[in-house]
């Protein structure tokens, strides 16, 4: 057994006994960690309030070599997000982030880029739906499911500079990306996207994007429909908070 230190975001908590608690942490250094905090439910616990959902904390834990729950020995709060208490929209987005990190990642599979993206979104008092889409795309990319947008997923033919603003673009979730007109008949699962939506998605996947594009009603509808389908497919079910996010 080894003692580890990490910076973590609390993404789930479950009462274990009258005095102890199981907490799921998404750490920058180790990825998802599930640990038992003995005495974590006591009023005068050494863990302070670090177990509150969507709290960032510094933790020390003993990693079990044989699997099972790790043992959390120290947790000190490092950051909270006060606006989550006063804005239901921001809170629902925060819960959605926690759900994707808790249920959509593997134990001890670190994704520092995803950790940073989660904190960046949580730090925004009123995150736009475009920012949520950027997080979803980062989540998909880190898990190996980034949509192919620049070329036909079937024949690899580049689609850059081949689409006019009036065109429609076919996206195949089964194929994992856009499909050119010649390959459309070979795909079963298809979604029709406007050129504006296709251009917007390409902007959102850029890691160095500086200006977040505005969503027209059509682009918003198509982006939410596509990303909701992709996230649900990877997760194996529809996220519980997805409807609340789509409604914001």
Task: Give a description of the structure.
By secondary structure, the chain is of the alpha+beta class. The chain has a domain at 1-80: Nucleic acid-binding proteins (OB fold (Dihydrolipoamide Acetyltransferase, E2P), Beta Barrel). Helix content is 31%, strand content 23%. The protein has 6 helices and 8 strands. It has helices spanning 88-103, 112-122, 129-142, 195-204, 217-235, 242-247, and strands at 2-15, 21-27, 31-37, 56-63, 70-79, 168-172, 177-179, 191-194. The strands form 2 sheets. The chain has a 5-stranded mixed beta barrel with strand order 1-2-3-5-4. α2 runs antiparallel to α3, α3 packs parallel to α5 and α4 (195-204) packs across α5 (217-235). The longest helix is centred in the last third of the chain and has 19 residues, at 217-235.
Mean pLDDT: 89
Which class best fits the helix and strand makeup?
A: alpha+beta
Overall 3D form: elongated
Please provide the count of β strands. 8
Q: Percent helix among the residues? A: 25-40%
Largest sheet: 5 strands, mixed, barrel
- Uncertain segments are none
Q: Could you please say which CATH topology of the domain at 1-80 applies here?
A: OB fold (Dihydrolipoamide Acetyltransferase, E2P)
A few lines on this structure:
With 248 residues, this protein is α+β, with helices and mostly antiparallel strands. The protein has a domain at 1-80: Beta Barrel (OB fold (Dihydrolipoamide Acetyltransferase, E2P)), CATH 2.40.50.
